[in-house]
Amino acid sequence: MLFFFGGAADIFVGNHAHEHPLHVALLVIALCFATFPIALRRRFPLPVLIVVTGALAVATMLGQGFAPQPVVALPLYMVAVRYERRVSAIALCMVEVALLGSLGIAVILRPTGGDVTFNIVLAGATWFVGDSIRARRAYIAGLTLQAEERQRREVERVEQSIAEERLQIARELHDIVAHSLSVIAIQSGVGSHVLELQPEEARKALAAVEMTSRSALVELRRVLGVLRRDDFDKPSLTPAPGIDDLDQLLVQFRAAGVSVDLRQRGTVVRLLPSMDLSVFRIVQEALTNVTKHAGGASAKVDIKFEGDAVVVSVVDDGSTFVNGNNSILDSSDEVRVHHGIIGMRERAAVFGGTLTAGPRQGGGFEVRARVPIDPTPQ
């Protein structure tokens, strides 16, 4: 509205005050079309720009540019800010062509008064400012999107890390608890049966229960200590079990009634602590399955260093059970895999290794893992 009154004052008080009434009427009509649509520039920037440019072109041909009212600047600025550069540049060219064409006609008609070149310069300057602001907004929006994407990836990485830690803890607890409780259950049963007739055997069974439970408590404290330790606590100095601790592990299984032999071949290579622990846990879980599902069977543990890999084999000569609880044959002669074997396969897969488990042709069961010594992260 302010632009309208400013333009009207220029028409009726300025150089056009003594013009023909028809000339003045045409200027007033052009002024209305050049000012009133500006109120709708935010909702319809391009249509408003077209209407305002047409009105200015008519006024320019009549010798009036409505300077210094920036009527063309506001809609052109909105077009430059909202639309892509290609679209806004075309709009600027159309505005300039219309104003230049009308200026040429005005020169031919030689009307009097008014600055008819003001809007031509103003249009170019306005487009440059609006396009610069649009480009800056796009740049800031791009930076915001990149920051959001980085944040999303960081959240996903943290969630994946938490899931992997939970899986590792679950494997550790499963291996410790399953092994220890299996040995304790078997020895407790043996002790209760021979308590009256063979007290010496009962004492051996109780001693095995005590040894196994103490070992389980030590390992549980180690795992729980890792979970409870904060950044200000001193790290636990108790080493995780590895291949060097297999002899002590086999003592527990022998006490549980499983005859186990250990053979180690090849040139011994010092493994990564996590890989050493994984090999230990694979042997432990395989022997635990022997204890639970092939009672009275004997087993052989073979650790072979092949230069670029360590091969672990646990073989027992027990019977093949049907509808058992862990890894047995179903009606299709396929191995049913549950948590124990899944955990062993995951431990091998972490280091790019493989693990197979299934019944042997001549009876018994075999667990065989091959873990590269120079692992490729998965």
Largest sheet: 5 strands, mixed
Spatial order of strands in the largest sheet: 1-2-3-5-4
CA radius of gyration is: 44 Å
Strand content: 5-15%
Number of strand elements:
5
Question: Which range best describes the helical content: under 10%, 10-25%, 25-40%, 40-55%, 55-70% or over 70%?
Answer: 55-70%
What does this structure look like?
The chain has helices at residues 2-13, 21-35, 45-61, 73-82, 85-109, 118-194, 199-228, 246-255, 273-293, 339-350, and strands spanning 259-265, 298-305, 309-316, 354-359, 365-372. The chain contains 10 helices and 5 strands, in the order H-H-H-H-H-H-H-H-E-H-E-E-H-E-E. Strand 2 and strand 3 form a beta hairpin. It has a 5-stranded mixed beta sheet, with helices on one face. With 378 residues, the chain is an alpha+beta fold. The two termini are 69 Å apart. The chain is rod-shaped and about 135 Å long. Helices cover 61% and strands 10% of the residues. The model is unreliable at 320-337 (pLDDT under 50). Helix 9 (273-293) packs antiparallel against helix 10. Among the domains are: 2-140, no CATH class; 258-378, Histidine kinase-like ATPase, C-terminal domain (Heat Shock Protein 90, 2-Layer Sandwich), CATH 3.30.565.
In short:
The protein has 378 residues and is of the alpha+beta class. The protein has helices spanning 2-13, 21-35, 45-61, 73-82, 85-109, 118-194, 199-228, 246-255, 273-293, 339-350, and strands at 259-265, 298-305, 309-316, 354-359, 365-372. Strands 1-2-3-5-4 form a 5-stranded mixed beta sheet, covered by helices on one side.
